[in-house]
Structure formats: structure tokens, C-alpha cells
């Protein structure tokens, strides 16, 4: 059988941006996982445990990535290593590749899964985390119906205890630790979120900036008690000898943001979901104490530990870790 001849285009100089596909390196997903885990955990020794490889094997993976990239991904910084510009780019794409790979694997294996999954999250994550989590999960499990509840810790703990939720993302406190200690509840600490002094943004962003009057009590905008953030902030102020007063209380995060943006006082929260009308303050120039970090925990009912629920928990945890790492 004869093969018809095809006309050839005129020869031209090769375009670096349009090289043949077979000339492009095929980055190994296992190596990309090790890179992402090392940055996420701050140590490739810890990453080796997460990816179930030896430290030497992880080091070899990173060297292979650098060889394929043709550029160094790390540079020495003090006693440790820091990402180069190429390293930051590689990390950003590594996370996207890993996410898409895992989404494809889950979708193929779980295409026929159905039923309900019930998840609860703190208000801080309703806009910052929830849309991305639900989008990823729904693409992988289109037949699964999701019930999401955004509420404060006490309501989420009650929902878990009463079997109205399968899993919940909460701020770690005595109540969540008590529930986690019971049989039938699985607890995973997924991040530590630094507390921040938060107030109105600069005037050009449409709000009055916060100015502290040193001889007056510090005005605070707070959630209705009990509130872990309020308790930690006032304890730190008391230890530092800084007088304070409650200027505004609210049962909702939206009310908290609105009052702080209006310049009624400072509030204390994490940076998750921080609106543009607010900014975090360095407490030292204002004579304010440093604030602690709060653990974020994911609680699950053992009786609800289906592959679908476990996958939703995995996506939620990774989304929170990525958001936390983005804060620097």
C-alpha cells in the first residue's frame, strides 16, 4: 500500500516555546509529591516519612527534578535551603499536577459512589476554603450529595456528637479535645494558625485606620463568648499589663468583620478569609503583645469512615494546609 506524500512547510528556525512534546521532560509525580511534602512540612526528612521513602531516596528525587528542570530549585539560606524562582514555579505546578492526578484517580475508582456526605466548617473557611473543596469533591464524585454546614465550634461539635455530621473542621480547644477522646471519633491536627491583630484598612481602601490611644483601654471587637480567640487575646493583654474594653460583640463573623472595618476597635482572628476592608497589624509598634497560634483539627466519626468521607477529609485537610502555607 502506497503512502501519499504530504507537502512540507518551508524550513524555519526552531521556536523554543513550541518544541515537540517528546522533547519535554516528564516530571515524576512521586518526586513532585516529595517536593510538595518537603515544603509543606519544612523538612525533607519529615517528607520522607509522609511519602514512605528513605531520606536518600527523596534527595535523589529532588536532584532528578532539578536535572529535568535544567535549573536549581533550591539555594542555601542560612543553615537551610530556600526555593529559587524556578523552585517556586515548580512547586506551584507540582501542587496542580498532584491535585489533578489524585482527582482523576478518585473519579475513576469512585465514579459509581453515591449517597450523602455531611461536613461542617468554621465560618472563617466558608468563603476561603469551602468552594474549592466542594468543587474538587463534586468533580470526583458527581453522584454524591453534600450537605455543608458553616457554624461555630459548639454547634459543629454538637452536630458530630448527635451524628448529624460526618466530619468537621474546628479550632482545637478543650471541648473538641474532649469529643476527640471518645470512642468512635477520629481526630487529625492539620495546621496551626497564628492569631493576628486585625483592624480597618488604610483610608484609600475605604475605611478609617485604627489608631491606639495609649492612655485609654484598647477597644476590642469580639465574638459572643465563649470565644477561643477572645480568651487568648485578653489573657495576653492582661499579662502585658495592657488595659482593654469590649467595644462591640456579635454572634457572626460577618458582624465581626463589619465592626472592625468600621474602626470600632481591633479584633483577633486568623488570616483565613480576611476581607479587603481589613488588614493585620504588627502589635509591637502599638505596644500590644504577641499572640499564640491555634490548632486546626479535623474530627470524623469512625462509623462514617467510607472511602468517600475519607476523600473529602483529605481534600479539606490539604486545602487548609495550602492556605496556611500561603501566609508564609
TrEMBL record:
The keyword Cell membrane does not apply. Pfam families: HTH_1, LysR_substrate. GO terms for molecular function: DNA binding; DNA-binding transcription factor activity. It comes from the Bacteria. Residues 27-84 form the HTH lysR-type domain. InterPro entries: LTTR, LysR_HTH_N, LysR_subst-bd, WH-like_DNA-bd_sf, WH_DNA-bd_sf. Keywords: DNA-binding, Transcription, Transcription regulation. The keyword DNA-binding applies. Coiled coil: none annotated. PANTHER family: TRANSCRIPTIONAL REGULATOR (PTHR30579), TRANSCRIPTIONAL REGULATORY PROTEIN (PTHR30579:SF3). Belongs to the LysR transcriptional regulatory family. This is DNA-binding transcriptional regulator, LysR family. It comes from Paraburkholderia caballeronis.
Amino acid at each position: 500500500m502506497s503512502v501519499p506524500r504530504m507537502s512540507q512547510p518551508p524550513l524555519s528556525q526552531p521556536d523554543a516555546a513550541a518544541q515537540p512534546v517528546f522533547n519535554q521532560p516528564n516530571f515524576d509525580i512521586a518526586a513532585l509529591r516529595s517536593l510538595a511534602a518537603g515544603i509543606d512540612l519544612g523538612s525533607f526528612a519529615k517528607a520522607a516519612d509522609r511519602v514512605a521513602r528513605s531520606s536518600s531516596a527523596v534527595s535523589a528525587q529532588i536532584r532528578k527534578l532539578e536535572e529535568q528542570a535544567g535549573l536549581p530549585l533550591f539555594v542555601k539560606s542560612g543553615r537551610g535551603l530556600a526555593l529559587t524562582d524556578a523552585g517556586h514555579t515548580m512547586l506551584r505546578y507540582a501542587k496542580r499536577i498532584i491535585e489533578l492526578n489524585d482527582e482523576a484517580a478518585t473519579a475513576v475508582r469512585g465514579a459509581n459512589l453515591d449517597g450523602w456526605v455531611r461536613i461542617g466548617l468554621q465560618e472563617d473557611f466558608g468563603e476561603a476554603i469551602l468552594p474549592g473543596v466542594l468543587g474538587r469533591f463534586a468533580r470526583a464524585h458527581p453522584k454524591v450529595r453534600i450537605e455543608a454546614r458553616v457554624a461555630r465550634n459548639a454547634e459543629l461539635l454538637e452536630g458530630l456528637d448527635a451524628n448529624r455530621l460526618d466530619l468537621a473542621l474546628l479550632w482545637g480547644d478543650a471541648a473538641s479535645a474532649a469529643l476527640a477522646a471518645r470512642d468512635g471519633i477520629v481526630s487529625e491536627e492539620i495546621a496551626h494558625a497564628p492569631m493576628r491583630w486585625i483592624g480597618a484598612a488604610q483610608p484609600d481602601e475605604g475605611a478609617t485606620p485604627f489608631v491606639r490611644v495609649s492612655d485609654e483601654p484598647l477597644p476590642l471587637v469580639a465574638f459572643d463568648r465563649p470565644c477561643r480567640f477572645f480568651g487568648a487575646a485578653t489573657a495576653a493583654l492582661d499579662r502585658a499589663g495592657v488595659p482593654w474594653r469590649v467595644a462591640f460583640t456579635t454572634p457572626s463573623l460577618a458582624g465581626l468583620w463589619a465592626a472592625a472595618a468600621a474602626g470600632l476597635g481591633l479584633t483577633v482572628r486568623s488570616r483565613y478569609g480576611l476581607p479587603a476592608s481589613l488588614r493585620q497589624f504588627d502589635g509591637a509598634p502599638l505596644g500590644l503583645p504577641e499572640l499564640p497560634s491555634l490548632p486546626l483539627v479535623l474530627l470524623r466519626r469512625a462509623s462514617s469512615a467510607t472511602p468517600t468521607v475519607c476523600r473529602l477529609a483529605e481534600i479539606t485537610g490539604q486545602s487548609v494546609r495550602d492556605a496556611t502555607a500561603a501566609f508564609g
